[in-house]
Design goal:
30% strand, globular, Ribosomal Protein S5, domain 2, four-stranded mixed sheet, alpha+beta
Length: 199
């Protein structure tokens, strides 16, 4: 008997954004993403590809103001989809880490799917915008994601001078760490990986 698919579809509609997202954890990295923020689409596409997550996302937001609401709300919805797709988190590896270079940039990510949301973000950019997107919004995205996915994520930029490379290495490292953490541990496929018995 094949395992149940670990996937979820989540929608969120407010006066600021209208978002529909479908996520499959055990995918092949296929992505169809439209947020209206080109650089953010690029980062999420890399996130899906390197996490081997299938991700379909359409977001309409108040971009005439700025991208803040759109980026943060996508983080909320993606986090909710992760949490729903994981179910009771039985059998997952739980912890994951990755060290990802991109030319001169080097990013490290470590994750614990702990049931508690926390982001530790140690990343600095030498410029305020990338492709029209405020670089401070990357932290806002990951903070919203962690809180709603109920996981702890540490992202650290170890090296880098090119802001594009720094951002992309961070997204790829986070994706690789999450890919490891959500994978099913064949030695504990029926167990919840916690001494408490719940995550």
């Amino acid at each position: 008997m094949s395992p149940a698919p670990r996937s979820a579809t989540v929608s969120r509609r407010t006066s600021e954004t209208d978002i529909t997202l479908t996520l499959a954890l055990d995918g092949s990295g296929q992505a169809g993403i439209e947020t209206g923020v080109g650089f953010f689409d690029h980062m999420l596409t890399a996130f899906a590809r390197h996490g081997l997550f299938d991700l379909s996302l359409t977001a309409r937001g108040d971009l005439h103001i700025d991208a803040h609401h759109t980026v943060e709300d996508v983080g909320i919805v993606l986090g909710q989809a992760f949490s729903e797709a994981l179910g009771d988190r039985r059998g997952i590896t739980r912890f994951g880490q990755a060290l990802v270079p991109m030319d001169e940039a080097l990013a490290e990510a470590a994750v614990d799917i702990s049931g508690r949301g926390h982001l530790a973000w140690s990343v600095k950019f030498g410029r305020e915008q990338l492709g029209g997107m405020d670089t401070q919004l990357f932290e806002e995205f990951f903070r919203a994601f962690c809180g709603n996915a109920r996981l702890a994520l540490h992202v650290t930029s170890r090296a880098g001078s090119n802001a594009h490379h720094i951002a992309e290495s961070c997204f790829k490292a986070a994706a690789r760490a999450l890919r490891m953490a959500v994978s099913v541990d064949p030695r504990a496929a029926d167990a919840i990986p916690s001494t408490k018995g719940a995550l």
